[in-house]
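Troubleshooting log. The previous structure file for this entry was overwritten by mistake, so regenerating from the original sequence record. Sequence copied from the archived sheet and checked twice against the printout by T.R.
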Amino acid sequence: MYQYGTNIQKNLTPVYSFHFMFQMNYVIEGIGCLVNEEGEEQALKAGDFALVNPDEKHQYRNKRDKPFKMICWVSKEFE
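Regenerated output below.
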């Protein structure tokens, strides 16, 4: 597994991305959301896990003034 951390700043929404493998996310701080390509938001808070399916376009949003931090895991082939 490949692991990396990310910090989504308020109003700095990353572009939609997708991967050819599953992506597991664990929120370590804050409140934000996972957004699918239809714009539907799934609320996330510290302690939540989120699974992104292969080839699923997604992005993360932080609408608050506080940090929204996650740890993301993807398969080793992602490196």
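The first strand starts at residue 2 and ends at 8. Archived copy saved in two places this time.
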